Amino acid sequence: MSFEISTRTTGKRRAAVVGSGPNGLSAAIVLAKAGYAVDVFEAQPEPGGAARTLPLTHPGFLHDFGSAVHPMAAGSPFFKSLDLPSHGLEWIHSPIPLAHPLDNGESVCLRRSWDEMEQELSHDGKAWRSLIGPFAEHWNELAPEVLRPVSLRTNHPFLMARFGLFAVPSAKRIADWFFRGERAKALYAGLAAHSFLSLDETLSSSVGLVLAIVAHVEGWPIPKGGSQAITSALINALNANGGQVICNHRVERLQDLVDYDLKICDVTPRQLERLAGSLLAESERENLLTYRYGPGVFKVDYALSSPIPWTAPDCSKAATVHLGGKFDEIAASEAAMRRGEHSEHPFVLLAQPSLFDPTRAPAGKHTAWAYCHVPHGSEKNMLPILEAQIERFAPGFADCVLDRHIFHPADLESMDANLVGGDINGGVLDVKQFLFRPTSRIYATTAEDIFICSSSTPPGGGVHGMCGFHAATLALKK
Asked: What gap in Å lies between CA 50 and CA 403, rounded to an integer?
């Protein structure tokens, strides 16, 4: 699959993109390079959707509203084709991509070096390499295949068959097949938990497998200045091709966009149905309204007086820390979430970007964010439980907190309408919605000039722009 975009002039055709998240901006860039006059409409004061960096606590502390660490952005074939560093994006790599502390005061880490990884996992090191290595060696061939809709057509049938063999089963099955020790199993559990599935569910291994592969190829970097830097680089690429972003402009109805030949929406199915209304067939509207959103997150942003006092030293060398203990405990947490329950010992994802990017906080001070998975639309205050998990592995953490900003699922949705019920993945990633996301038409709709490009389309959640790339490419073909 080529990521070279045609620059053929198409006259004065105009395109409107609704939503300025990474997928919306990616779609806009594809269209602008193809000769369209492109306007991106954003309801919020700042562009970026979940890829924004905001002053949520004390002055001088900059916090990422959504994800802070971006392995998929670094590994995105489309982003690479844009040469985002030439548009101002600077990646920062922490010495260790990911640390996972254990109750014995030690940690198990995901490291980029194969030799270091084998040493990290001792007797499971060779098994880790046999699972991840063949895909990491062929990431340039694998990435375009896995970051698109599922298709029987493939340029790499043997590579994809091998990937499917390990991506489709549950994370529990893969961990039991490959690993004997608790350290490797715990590490894989944390990676797989990014799927928001129970770890004994089909496909729960897929997300963890991809994140592990990308860690060895690209690392798990953070953008200097925060996630807004990714958005800014994408906007610079769009501006260079004649497109523009218009903020504080909420599109209420696609019927109002009468001057545009093409509309691509970086919104979830529920928003698309509301925006398009009678422009879509009634059966399609019903399908969009029955799309299933996934669990939510309870998120806290911290302003800190000092670095987090981890018991395990390697945790201070990693931008990302997974908190949850052994495989079985993480599995129990994710299973409870899938049952609509709140775990008393939740799996917690924590990012600490200021350790490696001093622009994020005043001198000597630090930022961090942490979230745990909760049932869709949860209203429960998870703060005491979440902070107990941090204190478990970093005694004295509470003494470092200068201020905190709490996001319940409804708060997240109020700041980004795509985060329905706090769902940051754009919908449940079970088998049905993995194959047909959001409907069997994928990016297209029953209206020939309306397309959808959000994370509710393949390949799903993450900051990679591939949903937007594929939606816009299809729109140009049609």
From this structure: 22
Q: What is the pLDDT of residue 432?
A: 82
DSSP type of residue 44: S
Q: Using CA atoms, how far apart are residues 407 and 47, in angstroms rounded to an integer?
A: 19
440-475 pLDDT per residue, tens: 999 999 999 999 999 999 999 999 999 999 999 999
In whole angstroms, give the CA distance from residue 447 to residue 469.
19
Give the alpha-carbon dihedral of 275, 281, 286, 291, to 10 degrees.
Answer: -60
Task: Transcribe 83-98 into DSSP letters.
Answer: TGGGGT--EE--SEEE
* Cβ atoms within 10 Å, residue 52: 23
In this predicted structure, the answer to whether residue 7 has a pLDDT above a threshold of 60 is no
Residue 30 confidence (pLDDT) above 60: yes
CB 92, CB 222: distance < 8 Å: yes
Q: Which two tokens stand for residue 468?
A: 């937007």
Residues contacting residue 291 through CB under 8 Å, at least 6 positions apart = 268, 269, 270, 427, 433, 438, 439, 456
Reported as a single tens digit per residue, the pLDDT across 176-206 is 999 999 999 999 999 999 999 999 999 999 9
User: What is the C-alpha separation between 208 and 189, in angstroms, rounded?
Assistant: 8
Secondary structure of 189-222 in the HEC alphabet? HHHHHHHCCCCCCCCHHHHHHHHHHHHHHCCCCE
Token output for 388: 């107990």
Helices 204-217/182-192 angle, 10° precision: 100
The dihedral through the CA atoms of 370, 376, 378, 382 has a sign that is negative
How many alpha carbons lie under 13 Å from residue 89 in its C-beta half-sphere?
25
Task: Determine contact, residues 94/305, Cβ cutoff 8 Å.
Answer: no
pLDDT at residue 248, as a whole number: 96
Task: Quote the pLDDT of residue 474.
Answer: 97
Q: Among the listed ranges 70-74, 392-396, 428-432, which one has the minimum average pLDDT value?
A: 428-432
